[in-house]
Design brief:
The chain has 171 residues and is mainly α. The protein has helices at 2-32, 35-61, 70-95, 102-131, 137-140, 143-170.
Amino acid sequence: MLNEFFKDQLWLGVAQAAVTVVLLLIVLVAVYRSLWLALVPLATIGASLVIARGVLAWLYGVGWEISPLVELFLVALLFGTGTDFCLFLSWRFGEHFNPRNPAGVMRMTLARSFVPLVTSAGTIMIGLLLMGTTQFRLFSTTGPSVALGLAVSLLATLTLTPALLVLLASV
């Protein structure tokens, strides 16, 4: 009985993520006016979500409590913040773009974007971690897990996104 519930929840999460990806892809293609550029945030967010879920699954195996709401919050927060972070980075990269030196431009972009990105993500992560201090178990077992997912997303934004943008600029 309980096993069926978790299977149903898994498929519900997959369906929600699929709808989110399709809607986000439409918006990103409209913003970037390029399918390839629109795929950069989706690849970054997708990788973040897969890695975060893997880390959380491992943590659950060693005793970390995880709320049933974590999957919903992970999808919503990682797709929302991940898109914002990637858009910020790609627009800053585009502002100073030099086709002869895309890697140099990306180094400058990362140097100028690091503090705003970390500050933005850090503020949200602190709020999520504070949820872990509440007596309400649903919140205290959701916030820290989602904060971990956001940290993974920030790392992906600072590593995978620049690599993909420089790769696309070199093609």
